[in-house]
Amino acid sequence: MGLLPHSLLLLLLSIPLQTAAAGLGTVPINGTCNILNNGLDPDTHRFVTDCDATGYCTAQGTCQPKGCRRDVFAFGYGSTPQPPFCPDGTFCPDEEDACQPLLAVGKPCQLDRDDECAPPPNWQDLSSSMNSNGSICLSFVCQYQNATLGSACMVENVAYTGFESSGATFVQVVSRDNCKTPQYYCDGVQRVCLHVKPVGQACTGNKECGSYHCENGVCDLAPGVPREVSAWEYVVTGIGILAVMTGTLVGLWILHRRQRDSRRAEIAAYWREQTSYRNSLFALHHAHPTLSRPNTMYALAPTTPSVSSFTDTDTLRGREGWTMSSEESKVDLVGGSTVVVTPADDGKATVKETGPEKRRDWTALI
């Protein structure tokens, strides 16, 4: 590497490769390599070389262990000790061969390597997230990012090719300039510095927006910026929550009420049916008091045990049923009236309904 001036090497390394060399990135340490294959990938602009991830290609054509690193966790090392970081005032180039002094304004630098350039005297005023301590590597030359409103400026547009999960490719153009950021940007047509645009204005690129986020041709809030919620939004949200809770409670109350009404109607219908059935039994016995009733559960009981007798005719026990022969029997009907049944000697009975005497006297047919 000492055979060529360092600035010339940087220019050579900054030229994108047009074709991939055979065995690119696979040559181990002490293997043979070609320094002319060093360069940038034409799609991703990533630095590539014949050597593997732990080596760089020397001017003598051999792969040697890297002498510095840029990443905290360098790729390809595993448990192997990694090379050191460069101290302040120096930088580690793309080939990561050895630390180099920072470059002054006008010196050649590698693509998008703002950290290779030395900072200006007023770097505190020019420093931003879009440069390195106020310096920027623009078109492979170190410059200060200090152009102000109305000043002439220069633009660098770099196209990066990305790959989707389906394998399809897309192109993303990154445009950078030497206007002071984040206040100004370089207009691509007029080539003068203009004020950045606020959220909501039309734009053609991210650099035109103060938020550095141009979405669908309009400056929008940058991703990750917290949204400020207005007072009326809190009020509307609270009212919506109360409305949903009230609607839920009212809906449940109406549903339970309908279920209770339906259950109450079922119970009422059941008791009406039972009452009608009982009244039908009373009416049947009223009309035919001397008929045998093998299927009824209750029969009229005599008013006094000494004046009533029953003959064994129960069909449930192998007989024909019960036959009542008593002098007089009474039973209370619904409404408070009383039915008095008086049997006669010829087998016929006399039925008489009296006033509201309240007495029920039933005995089971057993």
From TrEMBL:
This is Uncharacterized protein. Residues 1-21 form the signal peptide. The lineage of its organism: Eukaryota, Fungi, Dikarya, Basidiomycota, Agaricomycotina. Keywords: Membrane, Signal, Transmembrane, Transmembrane helix. The chain crosses the membrane at residues 234-255. It comes from the Eukaryota.
